[in-house]
Design a protein that fits this description.
Rossmann fold; Alpha-Beta Plaits; globular; six-stranded mixed beta sheet; alpha/beta; 2 domains
Amino acid sequence: MVLEIKNVSKEFGSFTAVNSLSFVIPENEMFGFLGGNGAGKTTTFRMILGLLEPTRGEIHWNGEKIDYSKSSKIGYLPEERGLYPKLKVKDQIVYLARLRGMDKAAALRELEYWLDRFKVPEYLNKKVEELSKGNQQKIQVIAAIIHKPELLILDEPFSGLDPVNVELLKDAVMELKAKGTTIVFSSHRMEHVEELCENLCIMHKGSPVVHGALKEIKRSFGKKNLSIHADFDLSFLKDFPGVVKAKPVTEGVILQITGEEAAEGILKDIVKKGFIRKFEIEEPSLNDIFIEKVGAAYE
C-alpha cells in the first residue's frame, strides 16, 4: 500500500507548520523523516493519521484517505508517551489491542511474544508506573505494533533507550519491515536513519530541504570526509587547498574536502613530514548533510 503526500500545507492562523510537502512512500519501505524541533514532523504525522486536516493538499494511502475505519491497519508511536500509569501492562495492552480489533487470546499471545523479544517477560503483571522510563518505552512500542499494522509511524522511537535496548528495538522494526509493514519514522539520531532507511526527507521550518534516496543525497552532496591520524601537527591543513572544514581530534584531524583530488594533494604534502597511521576517505555522513542544510546540529 503506497502512502502519498501531495502538496500538503498546514496553517494555524498566520503560522505555517507545514509548507507544500510532497513525497511518496512505497509499500514495505522504511522512510526517515528528519528535522529539528518545530520542523513540522509531528504535525505531518498527525495529518497522515487523519487527526489533523491539511489546510491544502491531499494525503492518500493506497488511493484512499485515512480515517478511523483504517485504524486496525495502522500503528502509531507518538513522541509524547501516553500509557495509563496505574494499569497493569497486560490489562493496558489487551485493552488497546481490542480497540484495534484483536481478541483477548490473540492479544495476550502477541504481548507475551514481544515481552520475550524485549527481554522483559516479568512485566506482564506489573503496573506501568513501576517500570523505568526505558521499559515504559518498550511497552509503548508494543502497543503500537501488537496488531501487526500495515503502516507504522514511529515518532522518536529510540528516545530514552540505552544502546542495548536501541538494538532490540531496531531488530524488531527490521522484523516488521521484513513481514511487509511500511514504516515511517523520525529520529534525532542520524546514524539510526542511515542504518535503517533507503529514502528520507529532511524538514526545516515546515518545508522539505532534502528529499530522496540516501545514496543519491550523499552522492550529490559533493564533499567527502578525510580522516588522518599522524605523529606530527596537522593543524596547517585547515588552510590547505580543497579543505572546506577541519576538526581536530585526539589522534589527528577530520577534514571535509571537495573531493578525491584534494585528498591526493594532501597526501603528497604530508607523506614526507612523518609517520601517518591513518589516511581514510569516507562518504559524508547524514549528520554533515543535515548540519549544512539546516544550519544547526541536533540538540
